[in-house]
Amino acid sequence: MEVRLDALDRKILVAVQRDASRSLDEIAREVGSSKTPVWNRMRKLREAGVIGQQTVLLDPEALGLEACFFVLIRTSEHDADWQTRFLHTLRARPEVLEAHRLAGDIDYILKVRVANARAYDNFYQALISEVKIHNVTALLSMEELKYTTELPL
After folding, report:
1. Structure confidence by residue, pLDDT tens digits, 11-46
2. CA angle 135-139-145, nearest 5°?
3. Closest by alpha carbon to 16, among 71, 48, 53, 47?
4. How many CB atoms lie within 10 A of CB 16?
């Protein structure tokens, strides 16, 4: 369900996407409003599900997670049992940052963050021991050209 947003709602969302750790006073000042209306709008946006979980972004390289792989998966299995096992396996692996089911020749794509190629191989071996996969292609990201969590508003 799409939520109707006015110009102030959009300004608030842009501001909190950029840095949600700022005080309500700072956000209100940035969007040109006072604290109470901004707080009320943020509460309504949370209740509507527009604003979800608030978290902190960590630098993977500073934590020794220097290798980012995009893993393309083709499977010959499409039954509910296999999908349940696959989903459970993905959710249990902290290396998997994103997983998407695709239309087209590739069934799934995973974004996997690990320390190095050996750590990726450990992940790969664990994955194929849990679920039957027809074909896996791993693509190593050489350089991240753009990364953002901000949605276009």
Report:
1. 999 999 999 999 999 999 999 999 999 999 999 999
2. 150
3. 53
4. 20
